[in-house]
Design brief:
- There is one protein chain.
- The chain is mostly helical.
- It is built from 1 helix and no strands.
- It is flat.
- The termini are far apart.
Length: about 100
């Protein structure tokens, strides 16, 4: 009987922990180097002789970054994709004279 209760508890605990446990695993992922940061540009597309090139009239162009690269977030700052806190701080009452 204790064996079944242990398995039931092991099955229920992950469900009860919800996304909180997953958030803890990925909370600091934006502060670590990401695979896309190693991406490099490639040569432009070369069209073989006798073929038409792709239609690029509606292509999106990524503008170059003008100015310095923004600094990475500090370790105590939240990631940009983290939702803000939903708690609103209560205003402190004015001190009585």
């Amino acid at each position: 009987m204790k064996f079944r209760a242990g398995w039931a508890l092991a099955a229920v605990l992950p469900v009860l922990s919800g996304c909180h446990a997953m958030r803890a695993l990925t909370a600091e992922s934006c502060h670590k180097p990401q695979p896309y940061m190693k991406a490099a540009s490639i040569a432009p597309l070369k069209i073989p002789v006798g073929l038409d090139g792709p239609n690029t009239t509606d292509a999106l162009v990524v503008p170059p970054l003008k100015g310095p690269t923004p600094p990475p977030p500090a370790a105590n700052q939240p990631c940009l994709d983290a939702p803000p806190s939903f708690t609103v701080p209560h205003a402190q009452p004015a001190p009585k004279a």
